[in-house]
Write a structure and sequence with these properties.
Length: 302
């Protein structure tokens, strides 16, 4: 894994083990402005082979002057602990809640991606007191409107003992597997993938017991129908969607947003990017996030 310049590693203890996170502390940042007095801005990465806080590392340094940045590796990913267990939805609802409780002394603006963004919606429904606003990139439970991911062929293969580990170590946790996934499922333009990205994902994928969380995701154990929950959301929210997202189309995203126009104030599509615009076109994503923050600020002020 790679750390952004001027960001240091810290950790908290959750009910499932130690969760590592990164925050600004040194050069080139002005340390006098980096304090607990700044409002918290939390970046949560999505799931997939080799996922980690690196996913947001090209974006969050742009907000250091205005916010206290917190970018964790979720349990089972990156440098955080990797319990050898079958992960369930409740594990992430609980540990995301615990992270916010322990690190944020004010309601947080949380920026999250893909399935983690969908899980964050559920956390915000359960604990609205922890949130100021949400900016969500391609939020999807991956089984939305009854389109059950668990019925896919890949999910069925991942449920087969022995074969599941074989798939992980030969098809995911190596440079060729990472490169292939990034090209086919995560980026719209393969030429935007450079060696550091592949190396960061590979290092995370090769951590001891990294296969447990990844396979729980691939099996569909963490997937759900977000349309059944999103109407309960009250936190001011903006949604950003990559035009060429391979997993869920912008049309599905707009359909989800239309279920709750009271909370979801912004739906912004970014053209010519896939699932992770923040890695593919970070400067554009920073600009869109800044627009969303300005639009949500009056709505989230008590």
């Amino acid at each position: 894994m790679f750390e952004a310049n001027g960001f240091s590693q810290h950790s908290i203890v959750t009910s499932l083990g130690r969760m590592v996170y990164y925050t600004a502390e040194g050069s080139p940042w002005n340390i006098h402005t980096v304090s607990n007095e700044l409002p918290p801005l939390v970046f949560l990465h999505g799931f997939g082979g080799g996922s980690s806080a690196y996913e947001w590392s090209k974006v969050y340094p742009a907000f250091v002057d205005e916010y206290r940045i917190l970018a964790p590796d979720l349990i089972g990913w990156g440098r955080s602990e990797h319990p050898a267990k079958d992960y369930k939805i409740e594990d992430y609802l609980t540990t995301i809640t615990e992270f916010l409780e322990q690190t944020c002394f004010l309601p947080a603006t949380v920026i999250a991606s893909s399935l983690t963004a969908a899980l964050t919606i559920r956390v915000a429904i359960q604990r609205p007191d922890l949130f100021k606003s949400l900016i969500l990139v391609t939020p999807s439970g991956l089984s939305d409107f009854g389109d059950n991911y668990a019925r896919t062929l890949f999910s069925q293969i991942a449920k087969t003992p022995i074969l599941d580990r074989l798939v992980y170590f030969t098809g995911i946790a190596n440079s060729a597997g990472i490169q292939s996934f990034l090209e086919s499922r995560q980026f719209a333009e393969p030429e935007r993938i450079y060696p550091e990205i592949v190396e960061a994902y590979l290092k995370s994928a090769q951590q001891p017991n990294a296969e447990y969380a990844a396979l729980s995701f691939v099996r569909g154990d963490l997937c759900f129908d977000l349309s059944l929950y999103i109407t309960q959301l009250n936190t001011p929210t903006a949604i950003i969607w990559g035009e060429k997202s391979a997993f869920t189309s912008p049309e599905t995203g707009q359909r989800l947003a239309n279920l709750n126009p009271t909370a979801i104030k912004v739906f912004q599509k970014i053209d010519h990017v896939g699932l992770t615009p923040h890695l593919e076109l970070p400067a554009v994503t920073i600009g869109v996030i800044r627009q969303c923050l300005k639009m949500l600020e009056p709505l989230s002020t008590p």
